[in-house]
Amino acid sequence: MKNRYYSLIPVGRETDWYLVAPKDTSGEKINPWIFASGTKYTGDSIHFDVKREGNQSAVTFLMYGYPVISTEVANALNNACGSEIQLIETTITGYGTYYILNVLNVIDCLDHSCVISYYEDNYFLEYRRGLPSFVLKLKIERTKLQQQKIFRVKDWRLPIVVSEEIFQLFKEYHVNGFRIEL
Length: 182
Hints:
Blueprint: E1 5-10, E2 18-19, E3 46-48, E4 50-52, E5 59-61, E6 67-69, H1 71-81, E7 85-92, E8 96-103, E9 106-107, E10 115-118, E11 132-135, E12 150-153, E13 156-163, H2 164-172, E14 178-181
Parallel strand pairs: 3-7, 9-12
Antiparallel strand pairs: 1-13, 1-14, 2-4, 5-6, 6-8, 7-8, 10-11, 12-13
Helix pairs in contact: 1-2
């Protein structure tokens, strides 16, 4: 049987809490793109402040597509995904310990038929030139996948893609804060 994959799409509601950019122990902001690059984080401890109080989701996606997850979800994902992820312990003012889910797998599996436009050759950020700038509905080339349980797609790293096993795990734990597509 072919493994199904699902893209996690952040769902933000006005009633949800809103976390500000992560900071290190000295109070300096951390570049959040590091958590979408597929590389291990080796920096200082991380802390978040709450900008807007509200409902806490088991999974809270922040602006750059990386999730902050509850301890319960972190434990379940660690057991299921092992070396495919890095769980970075963080504290949230007034709420205690949470984890940044850093997905370490980045796979070259984008089906370019779903790309609507690409960054131009004269785009001001050189490293983005020629890469997709807009994907209407994510499609992946399944032949390029092995048995990954969780990954990001090379050249389109915002979404996190999970296997059927992880999707079922989220259902079992009644995880909220996102919707599923793919």
